[in-house]
Design goal:
Number of domains: 1
Radius of gyration: 17 Å
CATH architecture: 3-Layer(aba) Sandwich
Shape: globular
CATH class: Alpha Beta
Number of strands: 8
Order of helices and strands: EHEHHEEEHHEHEHHEH
CATH topology: Rossmann fold
Bound molecules: 2'-deoxycytidine-5'-monophosphate
Number of helices: 9
Length: 224
């Protein structure tokens, strides 16, 4: 069994690298941001304020979040329903970031994440994987890129999904969300002391993945 933790700010390319690694290594990819997005989606559907900890906490008993894998692709079910790309909008990014600062929400999603890593070899991406969820992960990577680079990638991603936006708009949203995530009191989005920093500004996805594979090989040996 192996555990690989990939943390870092939004748009750093965590999911692209993590998916490529999972495929190459034949292990499970866990996108933990999708769990927070799903809780955010539910809060929005109930017309509640995602920053109001008491209101959000009161909703949790009626939320069931399940991770399932269909043909190797992760699906997150909310009360039995697959939300698909509905959790991928810029609005849901903000809702996810807001609810993720609430300690009860983090506690609520903790076991779902640890359980899948107990039962499978995983590459897990998020913000607190190396610090909180898998503190004993075999390899921890903290992935970053310049703000401009990250905003351009996120913008391209959103446009590919048919969501019209501009780089400036994405950059402003991203900075606000990163500041929320980095400065919150519980499980702030910071590198674990033993994480390897990796800046992929200007790299193609393949170059970044190859660089990370080389780092993993150094840490765990050649069978990657
Ligand atoms: O990775 P993402 O953009 O889908 O994550 C959405 C939000 O969820 C992000 O702004 C912060 C939060 N998050 C978190 O707090 N901890 C994680 N492990 C993953 C995501």
């Amino acid at each position: 069994m192996i555990q690989i933790a990939i943390d870092g700010p939004s748009g750093a390319g965590k999911s692209t690298v993590a998916k490529a690694l999972a495929k190459k290594m034949g292990i499970v990819y866990v996108d933990t941001g999708a769990l927070y997005r799903t809780v955010g989606y539910y809060v929005r559907s109930q017309s509640k304020d995602p920053k109001n900890a008491a209101e959000v906490e009161a909703l949790l008993p009626s939320v069931k979040v399940e991770l399932k894998y269909e043909n190797g692709v992760q699906k997150v079910y909310l009360n039995g329903e697959d939300l698909g790309d509905r959790i991928r909008t810029p609005e849901m990014s903000m809702y996810a970031s807001a609810v993720s600062a609430i300690p009860a929400v983090r506690a609520f999603l903790l076991e779902t994440q640890r359980k899948i890593a107990r039962e499978n070899s995983v590459v897990m991406d998020g913000r607190d994987i190396g610090t909180v969820i898998l503190p004993n992960a075999d390899v921890k990577i903290f992935l970053t890129a310049s703000d401009e680079c990250r905003a351009q990638r996120r913008c391209d991603e959103l446009r590919a999904k048919g969501i019209e936006t501009t780089v400036e708009e994405v950059l402003a949203d991203m900075r606000e969300r990163d500041a929320n995530d980095r400065n919150r009191a519980v499980a702030p989005a910071v590198a674990a002391p033993d994480a390897i920093p990796f800046d992929n500004s200007g790299m193609t996805p393949d170059e970044c993945t190859d660089g990370i594979i080389a780092l993993i090989r150094e840490r765990v040996g050649g069978d990657v």
